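User: Okay, second chain of the day. Same drill as before: sequence in, structure tokens out.
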Amino acid sequence: MSRVSKPYEIVERALELSTTDGLVVIADEHSSANLRWAGNALTTNGVTRGRTLTVIATVDGAKGTASGVVSRSAVTADDLEPLVRAAEAAARGAGPAEDAQPLVSGVPSSPDFTDAPAETGSEVFADFAPALGDAFARARSGGRELYGFANHELTSTYLGTSTGLRLRHDQPTGTLELNAKSPDRTRSAWAGRSTRDFKDVDPAALDAELAQRLRWAERRIDLPAGRYETLLPPTAVADLLIYQLWSSTARDAVEGRTVFSQPGGGTRLGETLAPLPLTLRSDPHAPGLESAPFVIAHSSGDSGSVFDNGLPLAPTDWVRDGKLERLTTTRHTAALTGLPVAPAIDNLVLDGGGERSLEEMVAATTGRALLLTCLWYIREVDPATLLLTGLTRDGVYLVEDGQVVGEVNNFRFNESPVDLLSRASEAGRTEKTLPREWGDWFTRAAMPALRIPDFNMSSVSQGV
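Assistant: Same drill. Structure tokens below.
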């Protein structure tokens, strides 16, 4: 075994090897465990381990500071010097970085910086797996088949800089996706959950929910494209508002390129976006959705800067009581725009003050409405309005006077999440949810269901 092998030792040694003006080292120790199943039986399971090291070198020149970034996996002590030299060469060969700022300093060190990385393993499924087996038995007796997977990841991030930062964060990420199908495969239903440890996931409740949806689908009703009162479940709301968050960079708004740009110049900050008292916020300490309390940036882009690594994060309201409150900024873009520093945070919560569950919102429906399961294949059509298009998937149901009366065909939709907030007539109870479309990149979300009086189903889709 190499003499220098612990993550914090790797970080310290890389910093010692530096010959440039500044260095940031990020060591990510990954572990994961997973289960997969099909036809009411487990098919595979596995556990993985890995390490990724990112070295960011900065060089001060006459025309400004340049940066070079190199990332590699499975790094050992023998790989360190070539990796550091590669980052330094990249910095010396680059032009001045537009987002250059002094490296962050003065942040208290994490007390567990020298501790071993946290790890996950098959034991995370100790309670979940037997409960899943019971769900398989119920599904078999009920004439349905369950398919899906459960995945748990744990990443310990060690961040050290030449300015003295020594920070550590452990991030657990768990996801569950479950599909139920009728034996002839003509009916399908989906449910997903986000979790930190699988202790709050109930396979029996999920199976019961899917069984009900398969029963709803026994009656098929064809509907044309059009505008329908629509109940968007929390997962669909999350997918739409995550895209809105990704599109809310201050610089693009100031430069007139987004839905948050004010016609004639400036931004829409302070403008009322929603008549309901909706608050869209991020908080690294949100219960059950905890995320890194400081910036971890492996590269620079529209919403992040490698120079901001280690910058403390604070609770941030993006929309407060219906008004646009903040746009995302790095220190660089904050200086350019004159707006407060507001880095991106890895979770998102929408509070609307509602108390009804989705089921209660269905029961309160008068007349006709659509109940969605989830959205997928979401793509941007027009950044100026944030018009998005996408498809419904795994069940669209018709509600008549508070009762689900059958399943209807899928649709393609055309809607802007910003416009939807302005038209929402009801927000339900906020609950943790798994974004289906963006679940590979963004899992920590809590959303209410939203009632939209006139959701635009622009065409009929043959998707399932």
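The chain has nine helices and 20 strands.

User: Thanks, on to the next one.
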